Amino acid sequence: MQSLKKELLIVFKKNKSGGGFTLLEVITAIFILTVGGGAAFNLIQQTLASSSLIKERLIASYLAQEGMELVKNLRDTAWLKAKTEPTISWDEYLPAGDWQADYSTQGLNQVYDDNSYLNIDANGFYSYSSGTSTKFKRKISISEKTDLDGDDKPDKMKASVTVSWQERGRTHNLEVLEYLTNWYEK
Predict the structure, then answer these.
(1) pTM
(2) Which residue stretches of 85-186 are H helix?
(3) Terminal CA-to-CA distance of the chain, rounded, Å?
(4) pLDDT (tens digit per residue) in 49-83
(5) Which residues are CB-neighbours of 85 under 8 A, at least 6 positions away?
C-alpha cells in the first residue's frame, strides 16, 4: 500500500507540473495578444491615414507649382511682346486680385470663386472646364506693383498660389509665394 501511495503521488506530481495551462496563464496570454494586436491595428490605421495625407500634399504641391508657372509664363509673354511693342508693360497680363487659371486658359481671366473646384480629366490634367471634380481649390493672388529700388517706378509684385482641400474633416492649405520683378531693360 505504501508503494501504491508513492506511485500515485509521483503520477499526480507529473500531471500537475507539466500537464496544461492554468486559468491565470490563459487570461494573461489573451491579454498580451489583445494589446499587441490592438497596437498593430492602430499602427496600420495611422500609416494608411498618413500616406493618404502625404499623397494629397504631393498633388497640392504640383498644383501650386503649376499655378506659379502660369503666372511666370504670363510675365514672360509680356516681356516678349514688349520687345516689339514698347507700350506693353512687364506686368500687362498680371492684374492685381485673386484669380483662378489652368493650363488651358490664356490668362488670369476668371475671378477666384471659393466654390469652384479643380477637375481632373481622363489624361490626369487638372482644369476648371471638364473632368471629374476633385477636392482641390487653387487661388492665384497678385498684389499691386510696388517700388523696389526707390526710383518711383513700380517694379515688384507679390504672387502667391494657395491650394486648399478637405481631408478627414480638416482644411489643409499649401501656399507658394514668389516676388516678381521687372527684370528686363528696354
Answers:
(1) 0.73
(2) none
(3) 123
(4) 788 889 999 999 999 999 999 999 999 999 889 88
(5) none
